[in-house]
Each structure stands twice: as structure tokens, then as C-alpha cells.
Write a structure and sequence with these properties.
Order of helices and strands: EEHEHEHEHEEEE
Strand content: 25-35%
Helix content: 10-25%
Strand order of the largest sheet: 4-3-5-6-7
Structural class: alpha/beta
Radius of gyration: 16 Å
Number of strands: 9
Length: 176
């Protein structure tokens, strides 16, 4: 598998160190977070990131988890995801929310998640932080912070995996 760097040059085999990128994400979230910010992870990779960031940054309160299933524009093809249900253990109205996701690609998941979030109230601010931005946007959505930017062929799918010990790694597979 090959990837392109930000300048557009081919860099050879894609090798992403998920743990190193997590540390970069941690620094980025720490820089954009205000004391009253709520972390909300998108199921499932984003939820893993939010839970670990909450612990590592010693933030008060509970992490929220949000699912894109009910607001996807491809719901008829995908159906309900086994990733979990939305759980927002705080008042959404007026909240400063940092959405976390593992991989930003087309922007469709983020669109669906923002629609889901507004079903619960009107936050004061929503920011997006991602581990990897792989380009290929179909909607005008961008992350406030991305630990890495890579370009992958549309035929490849990049997902975050978590070991039983909580360590992160990436899996790359051919798109279905």
C-alpha cells in the first residue's frame, strides 16, 4: 500500500504509529480544550480515544459517546451499527463539546453525528479532533485538530484497533 504526503509525493508503504499519533492528539486536545469542555467520542474508535484522553488529561465529568447510525444518509444500506448507542451524560445546551474520531474521510459521519448531537440540545461550540485526516472529503467539513494527514486510495479503509490492554494500532483493509 502506498500513501501520498501533504505535498502530494508518494511515500511508499503506509506506516502509522497509532500510539505516537495518540500522544500528538493528546497535545492538540489539551491546547483546544477549555476547562468546562466535554469530550464526546464517535463510536467506536472515537469513543476509545475520548475515554483514554479523559483519563490521561484528568478531566472532570464523564465522557460522552455518540453514534451516527440514526442520521446517516446511507442508513438504508448500512442499517444500525453494532457500535453502540448515544450517551451524553451532561447538559448539551450551552456546552463546549470536543468531538473525537479516529479517521476523518468523507465527512458524512461527522454530518450525521452533528445532527444527532442537536437532537439533544444546542451546544455553545463544537470542535472536531481526529487522529488521522485522510482527505477525500465529500462534504465541507474539516477538523480543528488532526494528529496526521495522509492520502489513501478510495479502495482502502483505515480503522483504529484497540488491544485488550488499551494500546492503539491501525488496520488497513480493502474497502467492501
Amino acid at each position: 500500500m502506498t500513501s501520498k504526503n501533504e505535498a502530494g509525493g508518494v511515500t511508499g508503504a503506509l506506516s502509522l504509529d497509532a500510539e505516537a499519533l495518540y500522544q500528538e492528539l493528546r497535545r492538540g486536545v489539551q491546547a483546544i480544550a477549555i476547562p468546562a469542555a466535554h469530550l464526546v467520542g464517535i463510536t467506536s474508535g472515537g469513543a476509545w480515544l475520548a475515554e483514554r484522553l479523559q483519563r490521561d488529561l484528568a478531566l472532570p465529568g464523564e465522557v460522552g459517546v455518540i453514534s451516527s447510525s440514526m442520521h446517516r444518509d446511507d442508513f438504508a444500506q448500512r442499517g444500525l451499527s453494532a457500535g453502540g448507542q448515544t450517551r451524553l451524560p451532561f447538559e448539551v445546551n450551552g456546552a463546549h463539546i470536543i468531538l473525537l474520531d479516529d479517521v476523518l474521510y468523507t465527512g458524512r459521519t461527522i454530518r450525521a453525528v452533528v445532527n444527532e448531537l442537536y437532537d439533544y440540545g444546542r451546544p455553545a461550540r463544537v470542535q472536531l479532533a481526529v487522529l488521522v485526516d485522510r482527505g477525500g472529503r465529500e462534504l465541507p467539513i474539516q477538523a480543528d485538530f488532526a494528529a496526521a494527514r495522509v492520502t489513501l486510495p478510495a479502495s482502502e479503509h483505515l480503522t483504529l484497533a484497540q488491544s485488550p490492554k488499551g494500546d492503539f494500532s491501525f488496520r488497513v483493509r480493502a474497502s467492501e
